[in-house]
């Protein structure tokens, strides 16, 4: 397989294309069901050992091999030099373009001066929380060392991201895109676009990540960010062709937009063009047209844009929402037959505010007749007819604990243990986490700190209500799953609000917003055993305690439920010296 060029002249890599010329191995099936090496460069023994780990090898699907090196670098995204985190010398990091069920073997080399991890935001890690890349599941990679991730985007399509989960590294970069394409025989509910663009948008600080982390550690909250970036810059240009034989029809391009910022909702819009929403975090949706879209922290959307306007250049805008001060990054949609540069004022943000944004969110609906990564229609799973086994109500808060700013869930502010919770669970190490500290409903008591876990059972079907009594927008993410976002509402949630739920065509996604002084309700089918992080996607709040873990468990230990611990798993804390 070779890389191909899309209509923008960008390389869309297949297995034969590897950023920075690192090691690449192509595999196929043998009659014995083991991978066959067709071509390879020199790989470390650890990488090869990870490939042969019987708990993870799936010989039915292709393998893609990567070697990424994490370093510091100095760039000036907002005009002033600052230290950032680079992957293979790139900011943002390399883009992963893969296909449903590909086996990804990624050797991550840490050349920073502190431990480091990457997490794969939105990749479900089916039966494999060992590879999730958060401190509750993995020991961080020590400086000067490496770890080889081995995972699949199992039965997934769509636009996702990766970023650092350790410390406050996320404020220094180290993030990138994961684009999961459908398998050749799986149709999508729209014509093949003429091109495909990825936009990583997010707010950004001029202050370095170490100083920001020190400020949080001292008990302060973060100030307002300094700017907004599009793919690591304040400006960017995206070029597309117009069909000169049918100007009124035009060629159509896919834009994958992800909010990789730290704090703020962003509004995305393109001057003079409407956008057709086609996919949200792996869900094909009813294809409504929008002038602009609110994209909350941690979320991703895919839209189609048709170049059917006069041949000129048009502004692309990402700007902060619901903030007294507006931060804006602007790009350019360049028609290749244009001789007219962008002109006039930037397109204005929508006039509607929080209520209008909530109304927009309610228009996002599942396309029931379309498939996603599998051939069966999305609507064949009738989630609204399933009886829930448990209701969890989660109320976020911003308490002071010992005189310092913290963030909490139901009065409990999470603190990381020195031993990953997944390892403590596997090795039966006591005293690492608590399954009783965090109640499943708000209790109104004084805020405390704990390494909190909520126990659940494999195949539970749960209702989770996020209650936000603060004046700030919230964004909640769950690793290992997507979930049905069945309801939004203002004020206090009560059981009677269930009558407003969408139990027919609510979309599934991995990150949902919760509006100020409002609630959001989701339904989750707990079909993925493991230890899974539920967290605020607003990283200051996550760092200072607005998170916990769901332990999804079955007494039946089987590969049908969960993979074995990887042979290359790093051990730390109380797990050091344990045999696996």
Automatic annotation (TrEMBL):
Transmembrane segments: none annotated. Signal peptide: none annotated. CDD domains: CuRO_1_AAO_like_1. Keywords: Glycoprotein. InterPro entries: Cu-oxidase-like_N, Cu-oxidase_2nd, Cu-oxidase_C, Cu-oxidase_fam, Cupredoxin, CuRO_1_AAO-like. Gene3D superfamilies: Cupredoxins - blue copper proteins (2.60.40.420). GO terms for molecular function: copper ion binding; oxidoreductase activity. Residues 70-183, 196-337, 418-555 form the Plastocyanin-like domain. It comes from the Eukaryota. Belongs to the multicopper oxidase family. This is L-ascorbate oxidase.
């Amino acid at each position: 397989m070779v890389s191909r060029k899309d209509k923008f002249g960008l390389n869309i890599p297949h297995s034969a294309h590897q950023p920075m010329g690192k090691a690449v191995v192509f595999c196929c099936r043998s009659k014995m069901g083991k991978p066959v090496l067709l071509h390879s460069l020199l790989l470390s023994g650890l990488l090869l050992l990870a490939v042969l780990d019987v708990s993870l090898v799936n010989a039915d699907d292709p393998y893609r091999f990567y070697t990424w090196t994490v370093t510091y670098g100095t760039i000036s995204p907002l005009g002033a030099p600052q230290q950032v985190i680079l992957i293979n010398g790139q900011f943002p990091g390399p883009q992963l373009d893969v296909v449903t069920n590909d086996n990804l073997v990624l050797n991550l080399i840490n050349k920073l001066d502190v431990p480091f991890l990457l997490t794969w935001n939105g990749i479900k890690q089916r039966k494999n929380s060992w590879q999730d890349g958060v401190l509750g599941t993995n020991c961080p990679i020590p400086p000067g060392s490496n770890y080889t991730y081995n995972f699949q985007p199992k039965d997934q399509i769509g636009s996702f991201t990766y970023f650092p989960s350790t410390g406050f590294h996320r404020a220094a970069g180290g993030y990138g895109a994961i684009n999961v394409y459908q398998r050749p025989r799986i149709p999508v509910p729209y014509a093949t676009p003429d091109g495909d663009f990825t936009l990583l948008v997010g707010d950004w600080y001029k202050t370095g990540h170490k100083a920001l982390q020190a400020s949080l550690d001292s008990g302060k909250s973060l100030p307002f960010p300094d700017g907004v970036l599009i793919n690591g810059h304040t400006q960017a240009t995206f070029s597309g062709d117009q069909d000169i034989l049918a100007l009124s029809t035009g060629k159509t391009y896919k834009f994958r937009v992800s909010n990789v910022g730290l704090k703020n909702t962003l509004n995305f819009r393109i001057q003079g063009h409407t956008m057709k929403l086609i996919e949200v975090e792996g869900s094909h949706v009813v294809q409504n047209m929008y002038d602009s879209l609110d994209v909350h922290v941690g979320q991703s959307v895919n839209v189609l844009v048709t170049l059917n306007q006069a041949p000129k250049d048009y502004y692309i805008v990402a700007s902060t929402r619901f903030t007294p001060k507006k931060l804006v990054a602007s790009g350019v949609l360049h028609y290749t037959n244009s001789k007219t540069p962008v002109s006039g004022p930037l397109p204005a943000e929508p006039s509607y505010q929080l209520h209008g944004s909530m109304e927009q969110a309610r228009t996002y609906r599942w396309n029931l007749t379309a498939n996603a990564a599998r051939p069966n229609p999305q609507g064949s799973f009738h989630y609204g007819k399933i009886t829930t086994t448990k209701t969890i109500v989660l109320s976020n808060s911003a308490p002071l604990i010992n005189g310092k700013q913290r963030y909490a869930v139901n009065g409990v502010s999470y603190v990381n243990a020195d031993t990953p919770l997944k390892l403590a669970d596997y090795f039966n190490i006591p005293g690492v986490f608590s399954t009783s500290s965090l109640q499943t409903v708000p209790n109104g008591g004084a805020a405390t700190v704990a390494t909190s876990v909520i126990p659940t059972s494999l195949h539970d079907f749960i209702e989770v209500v996020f209650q936000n009594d603060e004046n700030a927008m919230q964004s909640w993410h769950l690793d290992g799953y997507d979930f049905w976002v069945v309801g939004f509402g203002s004020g206090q949630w009560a059981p009677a609000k269930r009558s407003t739920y969408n139990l027919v065509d609510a979309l599934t996604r991995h990150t949902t917003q919760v509006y100020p002084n409002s609630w959001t309700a989701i339904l989750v089918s707990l079909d993925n055993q493991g230890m899974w992080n539920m967290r605020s996607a607003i990283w200051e709040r996550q760092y200072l305690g607005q998170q916990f873990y769901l332990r999804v468990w079955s007494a039946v230990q089987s590969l049908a439920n969960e993979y074995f611990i990887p042979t290359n798993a790093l051990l730390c804390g109380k797990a050091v010296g344990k045999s696996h």
